[in-house]
Specification:
Blueprint lengths: L2 H10 L14 E4 L2 E5 L4 E12 L2 E17 L2 E17 L2 E11 L4 E12 L2 E11 L5 E4 L6 E2 L5 E2 L7 E3 L7
Antiparallel strand pairs: 1-3, 2-3, 3-4, 4-5, 5-6, 6-7, 7-8, 8-9, 8-12, 10-11
């Protein structure tokens, strides 16, 4: 029985993020269309949206950028990105995919919902919700259903099955 916790740690280790992300780095973006909703303190980006911060890239079909209304050094203070439609987060040696994604800059956490897949090398884990802490590098996948959860853009996320599944590679042995 003592080997089980050690085995769980060894299996989870390959899915940990590679070091601390620089969440203070500037965020560059590109999109087919941008709509500024200044009174609501938000920006809507649509069509092939790409965000790049340090070594992390976030792609989606549409994204809402929320900012606080405070302006520091001439720039509004962005607090959150809500992404929808084929959301892909790419970090060195790691790719996460889902239907919806939320990047909370204040907490330095990315949450992905709906048919989530996390891949690192040849290891893959699937579930309904992924939480990545960019400070600690810890990635947690939840297999429980998310019935009626509101996603970005007002949609709902429903994942049946309630299990985390995946594949871990093992070293070749003689």
């Amino acid at each position: 029985m003592r080997a089980l916790p050690i085995l769980a740690i060894l299996l989870a280790a390959p899915l940990m993020a590679q070091g601390r992300h620089d969440s203070n780095a500037p965020v560059n973006f590109g999109a087919d269309h941008i709509e500024l909703q200044d009174k609501a303190n938000r920006v809507l980006l649509t069509g092939n949206v790409t965000l790049k911060q340090a070594e992390m890239t976030l792609n989606a079909q549409r994204m809402t950028v929320a900012y606080t209304g405070q302006v520091v050094d001439g720039s509004p203070q962005v607090s959150r990105f809500d992404a929808a439609g084929n959301v892909v987060v790419t970090r060195p040696d790691q790719v996460a995919r889902g239907q919806y994604g939320i990047y909370d800059l204040n907490r330095r956490v990315i949450t992905m919902l709906g048919g989530v897949t996390l891949t690192q090398g040849t290891n893959t884990v699937n579930g309904s919700r992924l939480t990545m802490n960019l400070d600690t590098g810890r990635a947690v996948i939840d297999g429980s259903s998310v019935p009626g959860g509101a996603g970005a853009g007002g949609g709902t996320v429903t994942q049946s099955g309630g299990r985390v599944t995946g594949t871990f590679s093992v070293p070749k042995r003689n």
